[in-house]
Amino acid sequence: PWLRPRLPVVEVGGRVVFAAGLGCAADEAPTTARDLRRRTPAHAPTRPRRRRSRRAGSPTGGPGDRWYRPAMTETATQAPATGAARTYGNIIGGRSVTSPSTFASRNSSRLDDVVGHFPEATKDQVREACVAAREAFATWSRTPAPIRGQLIGQLGKALEREKESLSRLVTREMGKTLKEARGSVQEAIDTCHFFQSEGRRLYGQTVPSEMPRKELATYRRPLGVVGIVTAGNFPIAVPSWKIVPALLTGNTIVWKPSEDAPAVAYAFAKLIEEAGIPAGVLNVVFGGGAGAAGE
Questions:
Q1: Judging by DSSP bridges, how do beta strands 252-256 and 282-284 pair with one another?
Q2: What SS3 state is found at 147?
Q3: Of 132, 81, 129, 125, which is closest to residue 103 (Cα–Cα)?
Q4: Tens digit of pLDDT for each residue in 119-156?
Q5: 287: left (phi over 0), alpha (psi -120 to 50) or beta
Q6: Within 13 Å and on the Cβ side, how many CA atoms surround 259?
Q7: pTM for this structure?
Q8: Count of beta carbons in the 10 Å neighbourhood of residue 146
Q9: Cis ω on the peptide bond leading into residue 8 (within 30° of 0)?
Q10: Fewer Cβ neighbours under 10 Å: the N or C end of the chain?
Q11: If we measure between CA atoms, which residue out of 42, 41, 20 comes closest to residue 31?
Q12: Which three-class secondary structure state does DSSP give residue 218?
């Protein structure tokens, strides 16, 4: 159920509202940037004017300001939006690990729609994830590359099965048009299909030697534990470009996804788990950048 968001993506009073703030009937929902531009009223302002808050002592804007909007992500200490949302944990060694504090990921075009609550991973938890990845490396790196390729192929099939659900989740959480979101998920699918066959093409080289009765050869070996930090503008395409090749070549991973799209990252990680990647090979820690898990 967490993988299939409500349909339509955002619904307010029977009308669909997308990132541009437009309303339309569900069967007229725009799916491309051109649709959004076409349906923007000619008199609509391109940028709202900045106004002082009606509340005294709040010159930078606050709830009393007509243009005020809360941040897309908030810490657990701030007032929660109405409605219950599921709380997720970091994925460390195949286990769900909670943190002392959490942040909320919100629908980018309807901020009272909380997609989920995610943990702010601590320094010790990031270290725990690294240790789990190091322990899993011994077995994963010795798994034959063609077998690793088969698991990547299973991941591609899982992404194909859930393409529409993932696309709508991307649109709901970070605001891409549905057409662009589908293209982003398709890139992850294509990446899996390409690297599935690379499992049988991790070729080395033989090099002539100047010495008699000597043979020189090169081999491809895994590096070890890989740290991956990704942005939120392409929350599934770009991570797939990094994660899939690293897994195929026998590395283990600690991944810190963007705090702007943690639900998409969680869904992607669970599909990787479903594909048969062993526990500890991919570890996911959530949180911010500077001064947080990303640092």
A1: parallel
A2: helix
A3: 81
A4: 999 999 999 999 999 999 999 999 999 999 999 999 99
A5: left
A6: 20
A7: 0.71
A8: 14
A9: yes
A10: N
A11: 20
A12: strand
